[in-house]
Amino acid sequence: MTTETSADTTIFERRESQVRSYCRAFDTVFTTASGSTLTDAKGNIYTDFLSGCSSLNYGHNDADMKAALVDHITSDGIAHALDMYTGPKAAFLETFERVILTPRGMDHKVMMTGPTGANAVEAAIKLARKVTGRTNVISFTNGFHGMTLGALSLTGNSGKRGGAGVPLTGVTHLPFEGSLGDDVDTLAVVENMLTNDSSGIDAPAAIILELVQGEGGLNAASRTWVEGIARLAKTVGAKLIVDDIQAGIGRTGDFFSFDEMDIEPDMVTLAKSLSGFGLPFALTLIKPELDIWKPAEHNGTFRGNTHAFVTAKVALEKFWADDTFKKDVAAKAEILEGHLQIIAEMVPGARLKGRGMMQGVDVTNGDLAAAICAEAFKQGLVIETSGAQDEVVKVLAPLTTPVDQFTQGLETLVEAARTCLNATTQTKIAAE
């Protein structure tokens, strides 16, 4: 049975809050999706380079995950179980242990939090404070960790922080790599601030960072910088929390963004593509010695999504049992970088940012970046911006996008950039 969907958007205007955002850039009613393709109510077809902001790394409606989920539902499988033991939870944990944790020598406990990344972050900083007896947390400029008050206090963007309505405290924001210019060693700055007894910074409970700052503009930390921060965390007695909510699960090349680095995070937050199917699912990985929670000391009605356990297990077995998928992602990352370089060469001062399949081009101007994304949407490509001033055109295509479709989408993006730059040039000539 199919249901007709109207292309009329008046119901959204009439009843939905003004807080909605993505629909303002993509003003159409989407109806179906498969792989990397979206279709709207008018029959228009789009290539998805947004992926639910990296919640759909494996694309829309993966056939194997869908079949497993449908089978679970039609068999009257458990739909909701709080944190009780269930077969699907056991199957997920066993698979996650076998495919992800054990090969990496990680003995972390798995804490099921509420369904969003912000829930995972809240749990991590709460536990770090409980373990250390300290209150201050170190976060970094341009970092984004969520919109609930604790996570928002870690977030740097003033526009997002402005919605809090109360002071955001308990956090010290220090410079991320490159944030003070290429000639400033921010690792040395951070080390000096945290080891100087007269810096005025309280001893931290934790240091939290994204290895690639998704919303902050695709700023990618180098291995040297990350490993230096990890050593510094141990020196000052702070717990190292890696926020892999957007940068993890294959987006930067391997399952974790730190897989090629010599660090052992005390905690790791995961969400977004964890379910593999776009279902809400988040967790916090915790080193065993830090797992000092009392039962129900941190909880939530939707801590652990049984339907997500079903699809996540399939995703792990399908994409991470060997290195085939990882190699495929690396090959597409090279294609991505090549096309972004074409755009960068069109714009004076532009530069590439990010790594893996989490890359974009900083075109130095938020208006230009927005115009490029708007033109791309007219040509059938769904893509968004990021950065403090929305100056980065950010590609978050599904990692499973077929090469031909991926290449065509990138060519569309290049053409959209060329169209916008030509229009800008003509406007300048007319003004003169």
Outline the structure in words:
- Helix 9 packs parallel to helix 10 (223-236) and helix 12 (324-346) packs parallel to helix 14 (403-431).
- With 432 residues, this protein is α/β, with parallel strands linked by helices.
- The mean pLDDT is 96.
- The chain has 14 helices and 17 strands.
- The protein has a seven-stranded mixed β-sheet with strand order 4-12-11-10-7-5-6, with helices on both faces.
- The protein has two domains: 10-61 and 324-431, Alpha-Beta Complex (Aspartate Aminotransferase, domain 1), CATH 3.90.1150; 78-319, Aspartate Aminotransferase, domain 2 (3-Layer(aba) Sandwich).
- Helices cover 39% and strands 16% of the residues.
N- to C-terminal distance: 60 Å
CATH architecture of the largest domain: 3-Layer(aba) Sandwich
Instruction: Find the count of extended strands (DSSP E, 2+ residues).
Output: 17
Uncertain segments are none
| Mean pLDDT across all amino acids | 96
Query: Biggest sheet: strands side by side, in what order?
Result: 4-12-11-10-7-5-6
Describe the structure in brief.
The protein has 432 residues and is α/β, with parallel strands linked by helices. Helices cover 39% and strands 16% of the residues. Strands 4-12-11-10-7-5-6 form a 7-stranded mixed β-sheet, sandwiched between helices. A 4-stranded mixed β-sheet has the order 1-2-3-15.
